Amino acid sequence: MGHETWSGLARRLTPSLAAAMMLTMPSLAGQTPPATRPQFKGIWEPVSFTEDLDLKDVFFVTANVGWASGEGGTIIHTKDGGANWTAQLGGDPASTDAAISKLRFIDEYRGWAMQGRKLIHTQNGQDWEEVPGALPNWVSDYTFVSRRQGVMAATTSSVGHATEVFLTRDGGRVWKKVADCAIRAAIDGLNRNISCQISRFHFPSPKVGYLIGYLDCIGMGCGGPPVLGKTEDGGATWRFMLGPGDVKTTKLRDVFFTDEQHGFLNVHSGGSEPKIFATADGGQTWKGVIGTPGEWLRFADPEVGWGFEELKCSYTTDGGARWNSRPHRFPANPRAVSMPRRDRAYVAGDNGMVFRYRVVPTSQVTPPEVLVTAAMPSFSSALSEQVTQLDLLVDSLQAIVQQLPAATSGTSSTAPSATSSSAASSATSSATPAATSSDSATSSDSAAASVTAPSADGATSFATDTTIPLDAPLPPPSDFTANCCAKKFSRLETILGAIAGSLPQLIAKNRNSNLLLAAVRMLADIPGQFRSVKGGLAAFRAATDQAAAIAALAQVTTAVETFKTQASAALQKDLPPVDLVTQPWPADAAPAGALPDSAQPAETSPEPSAEPADSATANGNATADAVKAKAADAAKKGLKGLIKKKIKIP
User: Fold this and answer.
1) Burial class of residue 78 (count of CB atoms within 10 Å of its CB; 0-12, 13-18, 19+)
2) What is the spatial distance between Cα 323 and Cα 326, in angstroms, rounded to a whole number?
3) How many CA atoms lie within 13 A of 386 on its CB side?
4) Sheet containing 176-180, strands listed edge to edge, beginning at the edge strand earlier in sequence
5) Could you tell me if 483 and 420 are in contact, meaning their C-beta atoms sit under 8 angstroms apart?
6) How far apart are CA 227 and CA 419, in angstroms?
7) Which of 158, 325, 336, 511 stands the most exposed, by the fewest C-beta atoms within 10 Å?
8) 377-413: string of b/e by CB count within 10 Å (b at 16+)?
9) Ramachandran region, residue 94 (left: φ > 0; alpha: ψ -120 to 50; beta: rest)
């Protein structure tokens, strides 16, 4: 062959042989490209407390903001992912105060914790105080589904175990017994009435919750039966059933539901390894999943979850269908774990240990104390790009309207100029068939639009009426907006339709599993804010002069900026936006500037409250007032005074 190249040789061969040789050419020439290396890795890195005291629990409400608690009456707080910790209570290793454990938060500033026989509470994420009132005995677990309503596993007896369910409707002051954990099961041919100890609650929604329990006894043979409890009214009533496994030996160790129907159980039978069982019908049926979960099950969102124990971490990235495990040896015994986001987690334990999980480039050098593990997948959603396109389109509409003569009006007796008519005609003829039916600028459509187009109040109704589908088309344009902006309307409808399609998928896929009320807020706020955007656009299309168009676009700008922030929260880059609370609020009133308790179950507290009954309406009214004020100001100033914040969604 001499110096003849492979391609030259291939040209002289038969096509089939040439093709075969070209396919094998890299391997024959020794030029096989290296396999693609992962670009990212997961790491567990130390961000521990500076004092040597044992930590009992950890809870993060965002990727960087969280609390840990432990010995010496300690609660420590960080705002920077553990780089710096501040003691809000305790912090002295020599202190003899009772340990604080069982941190429970429902949003970014309202939380509870247990210190011995005391329940303590923060209303602003900073200051802690004891909740007045007596607690039941032997508390094993508790949780809150709103700032008032919660459940607790305990007993009225001075001795024994947590075999009873208690309910509070006043934030933990008064607890009322609502159920006994008991079940009838056939064991060794006998039908037995069995009392069970409750070990853990989990509520995927404010109304639907689950608990797990096991035989109320001490010593050998105390594994089964696997008891599962379920409530559908926020904990007021419960029904109990047998979970998966052997009725004599199986013990349920942990429970986690990613929504009201889909959940997982950590099951242990005798000396065998723990197993994972999954349900897709609210606990009616269960199937085994291959994988070993460790001691705790936690999900950041419906797709990504972890199972933890001292020497191993298991993880899933597909909603629990498949699990993988990696060995890990933390320097101290882990006591608790928190997952604020799929790419961020924290474990806390003895000797002030806190380790943080995050995803970094593979090339990053890791010190010996850092544990390397799998990289969790990033969020993927077209919503980021779609909202950016919407923002740019609104900017272009503003530029067009600002350049119009101030006296221009679709209702003027003066006929539109030839240039305007030509532009409108060109826009109509170039529109797609779907857009032509709704966006055409013909005289008959324009005349109809001038009569039927909604007023500002009508646009508000469009924004707040939840019966209108998210993908409902905007009303026809007026003469004014058809003449000035018809070329943009087809693109506008396309973007709005794409966002309407992305929202349900985003909410279902990325719902926050760490904070109950943050998830509830996302379910309500994001579609509601998108309706506000469409309401503002409806008002703009109905505008008959420049001033009305400028005011409507000011409303749209405000709504789009809020929508962008909430979309960022939906991607769990941050929490849904709320006003910060700096002072505690009265026992029966909501904090100034904070969102009302939209997650309150149907059975509410009988005490009077300053909290609005309909939080969505209250928030909508407040938003509407703010929007009207900004719109009026922008109309006077011709948008020159409107300050726009550019919030980029990663």
Assistant:
1) buried
2) 10
3) 21
4) 137-144, 150-155, 164-168, 176-180
5) yes
6) 77
7) 158
8) eebebebbebbbbbbebbeebbebbeebeeebbbeee
9) alpha
Q: Which amino acid is at 586?
A: P
- In 3D space, the residue among 504, 518, 520 whose CA is nearest the CA of residue 574 turns out to be 518
Contact 214, 199 (CB under 8 A): yes
Tokens of 499: 């966002």
Structure tokens at 300: 């950041």
Buried/exposed 534-546: b ≥16 CB within 10 Å, e otherwise? bbbbbbbbbbbbb
Q: Cα separation of 20 and 10, whole Å?
A: 9
Separation of alpha carbons 549 and 427, rounded Å: 19
pTM equals: 0.72
Q: CB of 362 within 8 A of CB of 35?
A: no
Distance, CA of 102 to chain centre = 22
Provide the Cα torsion 570, 573, 576, 580; round to 10°.
180
Burial 117-135 (b: 16+ CB within 10 A, else e): eebbbbbbbeebeebeeeb
Min mean pLDDT across 322-326, 519-523, 525-529, 579-583 is at 579-583
Q: Locate tokens 């904990």: which residue?
A: 235
Among the listed residues 389, 410, 392, 395, the one whose alpha carbon sits nearest the alpha carbon of residue 484:
410
How would residue 172 be classed by pLDDT, with cut points 50, 70 and 90? Answer: very high
Burial of 613 (0-12, 13-18, 19+ CB in 10 A): exposed
Residue in this structure with the two tokens 């689950």, named with its chain if needed? 210
Residue written as token pair 């700032």: 147
Q: Residue 89 belongs to what H/E stretch?
A: strand 86-89
- What backbone phi and psi angles, to 5 degrees, belong to 603? -85, 95
Can you tell me the mean pLDDT for 10-38? 45
Beta bridge mates, 167: 151, 176
pLDDT digits (tens, 9 = 90+) for 97-136: 999 999 999 988 899 999 999 999 999 999 999 999 999 9
